[in-house]
What we know:
Layout: H1 4-28, H2 42-48, E1 58-62, H3 69-81, E2 91-96, H4 97-100, E3 107-108, H5 110-117, H6 119-123, E4 134-139, E5 163-164, H7 165-174, E6 182-187, E7 202-205, H8 211-221, H9 225-236, H10 239-244, H11 248-264, H12 274-292, H13 305-324, E8 328-329, H14 331-336, H15 341-350, E9 355-358, E10 366-369, H16 372-390, H17 403-407, H18 412-425, H19 432-440, H20 444-449, H21 461-475, H22 481-493, H23 498-509, H24 519-530, H25 533-537, E11 538-540, H26 548-553, H27 555-560, E12 563-565, H28 573-584, E13 592-594, H29 601-613, E14 621-623, H30 631-643, E15 650-656, H31 659-671, E16 679-684, E17 693-696
Helix pairs in contact: 1-3, 8-9, 11-12, 13-16, 16-19, 18-19, 18-21, 19-22, 21-22, 22-24, 23-24, 28-29, 29-30, 30-31
Amino acid sequence: MRSTQSSTSQREGLQRSMKNMRSDRLKQHPGNQADQKQPSDKKTSSKISAGGEEPIRTVMTKGVDGIGKTVLTQKFTLDWAEDKDHQDIQFTFPFTFRELNVLREKEYSLVGLVHHFFSETRAAGICRFEKFQVVFIFDGLDECRFPLDFHNNEILTNVTESASVDVLLINLITGKLLPSARLWITTRPAAASQIPPECVGMVTEVRGFTDPQKEEYFKKRFTDEEQASRIISHIKTSRSLHIMCHIPVFCWITATVLEEELKTREGGELPKTLTEMYIHFLVVQSRLKKVKYDGGAETDPHWSPETRKMIKSLGKLAFDQLQKGNLIFYESDLTECGIDIRAASVYSGVFTQIFREERGLYQDKVFCFVHLSVQEFLAALHVHLTFFSSGVNLLSEEQTTSLWSKVFRDKPTRLYQSAVDEALQSPNGHLDLFLRFLLGLSLETNQTLLRGLLTQTGSRSQTNQETVQYIKERISEDMSPEKSINLFHCLNELNDGSLVEEIQQSLRSGSLSTDELSPAQWSALVFILLSSEEDLEVFDLKKYSASEEAFLRLLPVVNASNKVVLSVCNLSERSCDALSSVLSSQSSSLRELDLSNNHLQDSGVKLLSAGVKSPHCNLETLRLSGCLITEEGCASLASALSSNPSHLRELDLSYNHPGDSGVKLLSAGLEDPHWRLETLRYEEAAATDHQSVEEVE
């Protein structure tokens, strides 16, 4: 039998060995762009690490593609490996779903899976993890190819018992398998719902660059101050580009294009729409290929037959896999699209900034586009090329490649309308950017940029006007704010900003009358407010209309804002129901909410409390002064805070009727170590001396 000292020494040796290997691997496999400054997230890492305040078993981090989720997990692991942070953790096991997918036909025990990816644990003979502080990182849930069925799944509690990898994952996530472990899962928002909310202790979101950080990126990227200022000014003139630049990868694409354009162009405008930017990006990469690999000169035509073939093959792959929701591709996916794996390796070697071959940190080759938006652009280009060369509408359920399809082909308008319809029907918005690119490609000015790749052009100004009109009609319909906002981006790609300009003009002149706004104009106002970082910092409903109708129309802005002022806005329990949904939303940014002097009453507070109770609610300040709340409403709030005590620090109930029992219930929270409540204000509305009572823990 080994001595305790010997076992401890061996464990520490293994930890040191694993940390060194992890550090070496991560330094050899940096994020997509090494020069990207990624947003940090101390809150997430402190909750995962047991050294943090009240560690949570399972943390989910959401963020759009390219926002920095993978880099965040790599930084966590690297800091641990280099003894910079998280030293309470004995083992960190980072997995990616793109690597786990390869094992979907195989069975492993949890120990066996760890041994497969981290061979040093097998060599050390470690077969149990209950005695260690272990963190499992699962990066890229949106790339998962497993059927994660949490409702009909076998129960597994033994770490040495074998099962399919999806069964292991489900039991690990639900806590039936190795409940002592901590989990960190990253995902795009659209895939977050694959895991039941009750299995997730906390949800964080990587928001990307703020406006100052966008400027900082370009100032660091370009040493020439004048050039950096010119690029920053140009980006600010385009709403779409400025919004997209919160994504670090998009900043890199923009910098790549604008640097080349400023170097080579002779007059003319810089790209100002998303489609223009990606067309220029494709042209830049094709030009680099021609000079670097084909031995051509800068002035030679860059659309060689070989280049056209590569772009068309990659476009077909992009579209077929986008339809399936796949962001990464294995050999079987390539074969389905008619691409030989050797050809794919050539493509990745030639178009290094478009298509990438990866072997992962451990083994198994996979392919992907450098960013999802590049895949979406090439998919749109494929649909455009196919339609105007063969008459086949790939978005139509009835497709034919016969001679008759060329004679009686669909009108371009039908192609674009069917694309709008299909994107609006998508439950998770996976075709939103694709639609913007496809519509952008309909403009003659953009087709001119691709002359040589496009053998035929199509779509005239009349077609574009018909498409614009169709989009405006759809905006007028009752649809989710996210969908209407994307349609405004589509109008921008078609160079039509009439609806937005109309509302902006009213805002500038102070003549905006919300009583007369049409549904489309309300949507335009939401679009404008969501595009403004300043408006989202503090949103005051009274600036637009102190009414319940305005509140419900502008609910997406409430959801995206940090501080929301709704005092004296004639709100009722109907508004409380809507606010409850906002507070329960995983995507909500709301931290400070002022509902003072509205007739909410106990019935409204009860509805509001359901949102406060949600584990996704991160509200820190709640002001309910003068809302006709009695003991019953206080009981609802106390119950909600008992269920979710971790965030609310300030509660204002002054000028209400809490009664002794209501005050007692909430005051108890000030003494409860689990509650974060620091300030509780209460005052009987009928008190003659109007003395405010403030308790501070």
